[in-house]
Amino acid sequence: VTPPADGDIGRIDVLDLERIAADGWRAIDTARAGQWLMRAGDGFTGRANSVLPLGSPGIGLTSALREVRKFYDGHRLPALFQVPRCDETALLEGFLDDHGWEPFNPTMVLVATVADAAGRCPRLDGWPAATFAAEPSSAWLARYTYRGRPLPPSAGRILRNADPVVFASLEADGDVVAVARGVVTDGWLGVTALTVDPARLRSGAGRHLMGELLRWAADRGARNCYLQVAADNEAALGLYARLGFSAHHRYHYRRSSGTR
Ligand SMILES: CC(C)(COP(=O)(O)OP(=O)(O)OC[C@H]1O[C@@H](n2cnc3c(N)ncnc32)[C@H](O)[C@@H]1OP(=O)(O)O)[C@@H](O)C(=O)NCCC(=O)NCCS
Fold first, then answer.
1. pTM above 0.90, yes or no
2. pLDDT one-digit tens code per residue, 139-180
3. Which pLDDT tens digit goes with each residue over 117-129?
4. How far away, in angstroms, is 206 Cα from ligand 1 center?
5. C-beta 203 within 6 A of ligand 1
6. Among 175, 189, 239, which residue has the most ligand 1 atoms within 8 Å of its CB, making it the best to mutate?
7. Which residue minimizes the CA distance to atom 37 of ligand 1?
8. N or C: which end of the chain has fewer CB within 10 A?
């Protein structure tokens, strides 16, 4: 994938950006059905436990679906799709609709240039420099909650499974008050796991830590940044709008009716 030039980030293809994002949040076990990427990660996060259709499965959709069910049955996981909304997936969406696969968890993929976003979150007075580590500490893991829930034991393996990956923490009064994970792939910084102590919301910690992570990534050659945000996460959307991010595309998941 050739990263687009600065100021040209809207032009990267939906599926190219999805490929970059999938590289930044990898499953434990994967298999291919043509250009479909089937991922399993002990059930931790939809992204690591769903099929990402990055093009054609190379076989008919009915046969491809059979492959999908076999893969997920083998992992004792429900079969899920993560479907990016774009022309290339329109046929699949229709097929899944017709076969009772219901959409859920609509998500927005946001983009900004690193320089622009970093310019909107300069170092704030009163906050120390963030610390960066190659491994998540127990304090980091304790602060991160996924969709409001604590992490399952398999989470550490998924979180570490990228290169280069960094675990950023912001400390105040001896506590880790905010954490985030950063990954650089093909010149793109992917930010995941940004979480602020619920007792410290709206005090600038999220913005400050984003600034620190963006500066860390700029030093490592990242020019652009992407984020994946649940479409109903108003706090996160508010923060990222403030930092100049704009919507690149959306995706949602699909599960076979009867699966929960
Ligand atoms: C999203 C989150 C990280 C924001 O962190 P935060 O430290 O509270 O945000 P900040 O104090 O730095 O806010 C900076 C700006 O973001 C925007 N913002 C933050 N929270 C907002 C909210 N609840 N509603 C609307 N805008 C909001 C505002 O513009 C705010 O500036 P202001 O306070 O001067 O108005 C925090 O709410 C959080 O941890 N949420 C749970 C985990 C999560 O959803 N993470 C994001 C995953 S993609």
1. yes
2. 999 999 887 777 888 899 999 999 899 999 999 999 999 999
3. 999 999 888 899 9
4. 6
5. yes
6. 239
7. 235
8. C
Please tell me the residue having the least CA distance from ligand 1 atom 32. 202
Structure tokens at 50: 């769903």
